C-alpha cells in the first residue's frame, strides 16, 4: 500500500492501481503524439471533428490492447513459456 497525500486527506492506494494511472497518462501522451503524426502524414483533411474521432479511435484501441496484454500477462507464467522453448 502506498500513501497518497492530498493536503489534509491521506489515502492508502495499492501500488498496481497507481502504476495503472501513471501508465495511462504516459500512454495518452505518447498516443496523442503518434496519432497526430499519423493524421498529418496520411493526408487527412484538417478538420477538428475528424481529428477528434481519429484520436479517440486510436487511443481507445491502444487502451483495449494494453488491457488484453495485462490479462494475458497475468494468466500465463514466464516459467511456463520458458519450458515451452
Characterization of this structure:
With 85 residues, the chain is mostly helical. It has a two-stranded antiparallel ribbon. The longest helix has 28 residues. The protein starts with a strand and ends with a helix.
State the separation between the terminal residues, measured CA to CA. 36 Å
How large a portion of the residues is in β-strands, by DSSP E?
Answer: 5-15%
Biggest sheet, spatial arrangement of strands: 1-2
How many discrete domains?
A: 1
Q: In terms of per-residue confidence, which ranges show pLDDT below 50 for 5 or more consecutive residues?
A: none
Please report the total strand number as a whole number. 2
> Which overall shape is indicated by the principal axes computed on the Cα atoms?
flat
Percent of residues in helices comes to: over 70%
Number of helices: 3
- Element order, helices and strands? EEHHH
Structural class: mainly alpha
Q: Any idea what the radius of gyration is?
A: 18 Å
Mean pLDDT: 81
Major sheet details: 2 strands, antiparallel
Report a brief summary of the structure.
With about 80 residues, the protein is mostly helical. It has helices spanning about 15-40, 50-75, 80-85; strands at about 1-5, 10-15. The protein has one domain (about 1-85).
